[in-house]
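Milestone 3.1: sequence recovery, worked example.
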């Protein structure tokens, strides 16, 4: 049974841990917190407000104390934490689903080079939700066809989200023709909404994805963790969801005139 760890037990990480505990076909074996965390050396059950689960929560510096090592870690820690923790995971032959966002290009390069050096598998997933990846694909298709349209991206998140605009909005913008403008709204408890507007002189298309709960992150993270187990290389959610294969299904061969 696949052994998984979760790093970064905050809003997204704890929701993911809760979701993983409900799954019958994997085993959540540990959580990772910051060295100064009040969660350090507690049982995950205590942190979740339930009975003890026998799932230790440690700082990565104590990884050698674990009786059972995870095969894959899902990381929802802030980028500063993820940068320090990733080398330790790779040295311990652990693959990584990197859901943390807000890295510089240089830092991402550092992490991916380390993964390759250690022959590990890593999914770089600033957009872990499956539906967001579908939104990306649909907006790419729409902008390729409607290349003269103005494109505006609007994203809404809760008021505690640090990065602005979101990593997902930036990624969407980079994938589309032209120079899409991004509007970022930070308010209240909004889990996450991304809207791509393609506006012409005579009509408009809007493609929207909205997460109703953080379980949407957990669902995508679990899919990525199962997929990257036993793989080596650097991947994205596109690879996990096999979007190229799905697209090929819709590409009809040219019909030869008779
Ligand atoms: N890819 C996606 O689709 C997606 C979705 C949601 C969130 N995210 C990203 O995930 C990250 C976390 O988001 P969030 O809203 O859950 O933030 P959050 O509530 O602030 O949680 C982050 C948690 O990380 C822990 N942490 C800090 N340093 C750490 C370290 N060195 N090692 C392990 N854990 C550490 C902190 O707790 P302790 O100090 O107690 O350990 C904190 O609870 C952000 O980068 C966010 O953008 C990505």
């Amino acid at each position: 049974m696949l052994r998984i760890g979760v790093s970064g037990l905050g809003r997204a990480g704890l929701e993911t841990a809760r979701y993983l505990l409900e799954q019958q076909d994997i085993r959540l074996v540990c959580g990772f917190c910051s060295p100064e965390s009040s969660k350090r050396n507690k049982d995950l059950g205590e942190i979740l407000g339930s009975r003890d689960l026998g799932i230790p929560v440690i700082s990565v510096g104590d990884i050698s104390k674990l009786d059972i090592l995870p095969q894959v870690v899902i990381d929802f820690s802030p980028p500063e934490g993820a940068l320090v923790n990733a080398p330790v995971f790779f040295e311990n032959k652990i693959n990584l689903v990197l859901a943390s966002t807000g890295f510089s290009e240089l830092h991402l390069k550092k992490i991916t080079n380390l993964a390759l050096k250690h022959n590990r598998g890593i999914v770089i997933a600033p957009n872990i939700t499956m539906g967001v990846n579908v939104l990306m694909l649909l907006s790419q298709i729409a902008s390729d066809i409607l290349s003269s349209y103005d494109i505006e991206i609007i994203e809404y998140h809760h008021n505690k989200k640090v990065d602005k605009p979101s990593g997902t909005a930036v990624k969407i913008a980079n994938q589309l023709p032209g120079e899409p403008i991004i509007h970022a709204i930070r308010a209240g408890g909004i889990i996450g909404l991304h809207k791509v507007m393609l506006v012409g002189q005579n009509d408009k298309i809007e493609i929207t994805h909205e997460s109703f709960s953080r379980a949407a992150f957990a669902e995508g993270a679990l899919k990525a963790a199962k997929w990257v187990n036993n793989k080596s290389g650097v991947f994205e959610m596109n690879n996990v969801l096999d979007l190229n294969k799905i697209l090929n299904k819709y590409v009809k061969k040219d019909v030869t005139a008779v």
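The radius of gyration is 20 Å. The chain has a mean pLDDT of 94.
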